[in-house]
């Protein structure tokens, strides 16, 4: 056998070895069958946005995936109240259960993480809810720059509602990661999202989770370059993390890249539930 033939056979064997699933991979294939994942995207983005490869990794392990377009997407912003968004999540959960999901994990990024925490706070009796993953939690109407930035608009929304104009679209200020934006919304929708005492306040929803008889496990993932990282676990995680499986993870990443940096840790945590 000549040298060229030997080299060709060696390369063929190497390629086959690289492409062949390992024994460990074969053992974990389908491990997440019957697990349904609802992924909630962030503000002004789109279904599945900025998941960092987490969804494809979970799908490869057999998980069922739902990526609903939430009422704060680029195309829908803001099309429904915070509590109406919870009903839309219910629909995504029901669709996964109809496909055979027996355990549900809600994953959210940015405003979607806010909503994932809010959902768990409002569904304490959902026995199928196995865990919540909050990736780069954001939208903090009760604190700092955002509270001051929207204070006059919140007062105006309350006045319009009192005048019977709760469903008349208006132009209001918005903010994403410290960047001022303009949004069109009805006063009732705007107030539900931006009232510092309203339903979209993460610490309040986290405290509700922690007060449950059987708190859902929470994985909080934050990048060290994300402004919310400065608030630390005391901001909201500690109040919610009453389940021993809850975990707080910091990665060297920013707001948008934290899901990618934490992908393996997120998948491993979901597998541990």
How would you summarize this macromolecular structure in one to three sentences?
This protein has 273 residues and is an alpha/beta fold. The chain has eleven helices and eight strands.
- How widely separated are the two ends? 54 Å
Q: Give the overall pLDDT as a whole number.
A: 90
Determine Rg (CA atoms, Å).
22 Å
Question: Which sequence of strands runs across the widest sheet?
Answer: 2-1-3-4-7-8
Work out the strand percent: 15-25%
DSSP E strands, number: 8
Helical run tally: 11
Query: Helix amount, in percent?
Result: 40-55%
Overall 3D shape = globular
What kind of sheet is the major sheet?
A: 6 strands, parallel
Structural class: alpha/beta
Helix and strand element order: HHEHEHEHEHEEHHEHEHH
Low-confidence stretches: 1-29
Task: Describe the protein's architecture and organization.
There is one protein chain. The protein is α/β, with parallel strands linked by helices. It is 41% helix and 18% strand. It has 11 helices and 8 strands. It has helices at 3-19, 23-28, 54-60, 82-98, 111-122, 144-162, 187-194, 202-210, 237-240, 258-261, 263-272; strands at 35-40, 64-66, 103-109, 129-135, 170-176, 179-185, 218-223, 247-251. The protein has a 6-stranded parallel β-sheet, with helices on both faces. α3 links the parallel β1 and β2 (64-66). α4 (82-98) crosses α5, α5 packs parallel to α8 (202-210) and α6 (144-162) runs antiparallel to α7 (187-194). The radius of gyration is 22 Å and the shape is globular. Mean pLDDT is 90; it is low at 1-29.
